[in-house]
Amino acid sequence: MTWSQAVAEGPLGDAHAQLAAAVGHLGYDDGTHQMLATPRREMQVAVPLRREDGSTAVYSGYRVQHNFSRGPAKGGLRFAPNVDLDEVRALAMWMTWKCALLDVPYGGAKGGVAIDPRAHTTLELERVTRRYTSEILPIIGPEVDIPAPDMGTNEQTMAWIMDTYSAAMGHTVPGVVTGKPIALGGSLGRAAATSRGVAHIALLAMEAQGFKASHASAAVQGFGKVGRDAARFLDDAGVAVRAVSDIDGAVFNKEGLDIFALAKHVDATGTVVGFEGSEPIDPAELLTLDVDVLVPAALEGVLTGANAGAVQARIVVEGANGPTTKEADQILTDRGVLMVPDILANAGGVVVSYFEWVQANMAFQWSEQEVNSRLKERMTKAWRDVVAFAGDRSLTYREAATILAVQRVTEAHRLRGLYP
Ligand code: GLU
């Protein structure tokens, strides 16, 4: 078995297959392929926790730095029970392509702790975050690797990481993380940036497919960091958001949900379930509803060989990372569904993370309007790059986006040369 065949199932298998297709298209040699497929640095740590009741537990933590060719590694930190090294490897590779596609000067990284944040108190999560940070401290830093929020983490998590790192350095280092609270140097517009980017791309995709936003409908899976504001921005643009879901259930309204009222309901109750202006549906049904646009904005691997044939949407905009398995991607593409890949659709978060890091480096704050307009400019440019590249070569948008990104990373690698 050669290195390139030693590929895992699941997200890592899908990520490797996407890379292999891009490398094949570009005609790169085996050595270049291996260089692109292999993470530069991986760290696995034990994260012991003393719980509030005095008992102890030990969790597994990971940080994978996939690539540094274009700059410091960049990517989120996820707290989720099923996180494992292969998942983090896949997510780190996707971050490399995402940063290159959006032309932000970073490589890709991802971190994870295999913990259910819902099963812990705030104090316990603080202890886990600080211990994880101190374990990976030697390999992070504003010029090395810059974590950010992802599933199960938030701006408070970033504040704890920044504080732990700063305490070790002996001075405050705001550039070590992005997605911080505004009061600690977070960027205006960062919290909603991923969602804003998803909505920009969804609207561009609708326009390209001849859908008028005010006559279009959508379903959004997930009502968290990405889905909630994506639903709001789509609603603001006149799209009827017919269904949304969260971990507890899904709600539906054929005329379109009142997203503002739904958000208030979620703030009060913690879930979309029981929202007055809606009827409950099976969360699995959300993916196959009769809507124009489907936005999976929760977990990876939700569109599979088993349900892809039943998807009725004409456009899928990947708000989550890796929500479509390789098999489902093939089925949906063959059925003529426009697949807008994660590394384009959800890149708004890392784009504004980059803006936050730039502001931290300059010790200066931009207005929210400036952040939002720069974000829109970058998302639109990346969309146009992908559409033009795909059109010229009869590629899918996922193929085009991956090839463009892989090309940029390889060019940087070639220019730098191989040391020694
Ligand atoms: N976790 C987000 C992502 O998957 C943001 C990463 C970042 O801002 O570094 O793109």
Task: Please explain how this structure is put together.
The chain is α/β, with parallel strands linked by helices. Helix content is 45%, strand content 16%. The chain contains 14 helices and 12 strands. The chain has helices spanning 10-26, 30-37, 85-101, 122-136, 155-169, 193-208, 227-236, 259-269, 283-286, 326-334, 342-345, 348-362, 368-393, 397-416; strands at residues 41-50, 56-67, 73-79, 108-113, 145-149, 217-221, 240-246, 249-252, 279-281, 293-296, 315-317, 338-340. The strands form 2 sheets. It has a 7-stranded mixed beta sheet, with helices on both faces. Bound molecules: glutamic acid. Glutamic acid is lined by residues 74-76, 148, 150, 178, 321, 346, 349-350, 353.
Portion in helices: 40-55%
Average pLDDT = 97
Judged by helices, strands and strand pairing, the structural class is: alpha/beta
Low-confidence stretches: 1-5
Structural Rg: 21 Å
Order of helices and strands: HHEEEHEHEHHEHEEHEHEEHEHHHH
Could you name the key traits of this structure?
12 strands, alpha/beta, 420 residues, binds glutamic acid, 16% strand, Rossmann fold, 5-stranded mixed β-sheet, 7-stranded mixed β-sheet, disordered N terminus
SSE order and pairing:
Elements: H1 10-26, H2 30-37, E1 41-50, E2 56-67, E3 73-79, H3 85-101, E4 108-113, H4 122-136, E5 145-149, H5 155-169, H6 193-208, E6 217-221, H7 227-236, E7 240-246, E8 249-252, H8 259-269, E9 279-281, H9 283-286, E10 293-296, E11 315-317, H10 326-334, E12 338-340, H11 342-345, H12 348-362, H13 368-393, H14 397-416
